[in-house]
Known about the structure:
Layout: E1 2-4, H1 11-14, E2 15-16, H2 19-30, H3 36-43, H4 51-60, E3 68-74, E4 77-82, H5 93-98, E5 105-109, E6 121-124, E7 140-144
Antiparallel strand pairs: 1-7, 2-4, 3-4, 5-6, 5-7
Amino acid sequence: MGVLGFQSHRDNFAIALDRSTIERRASDLIDESNPDDVLRNRYALSLSWDLQKARADLRYNEDWSKQILECSYHPFDSRWCYFGHEFMDRPRRELLDHVAWRDNICLNLVRQTKAPHWRHALVSSKPTPAVFLEIKDGSSVFSVVCL
């Protein structure tokens, strides 16, 4: 399996330093007493994101807390994220199927670099974003099944 890393398009909301922050954000979305415009202001959410649909999908998902997991946000920088379409535009089906909640490792590579020499390879046991190793080109994730 080889795929570009995940893309939330709203990292400031979908990714946090601790699990409780993501849980609080999800609870705020589920809470129907919070109007969309208040949530957009509180979390600096873009008008282009279909917040109403995300909120409905989250309310429908009884096991939403199981979607919260650790990710490798940058090399040697683990964070927490809500790993699903309710928070992210592209969680990547391949990462959901082969990396998240699995005991697998992944090789992360880039095709191009701004650096004078290519030396961009890193292993992770957690899902990684498209902009993981370098901003120039997306980081591709190759899953390796561990036995």
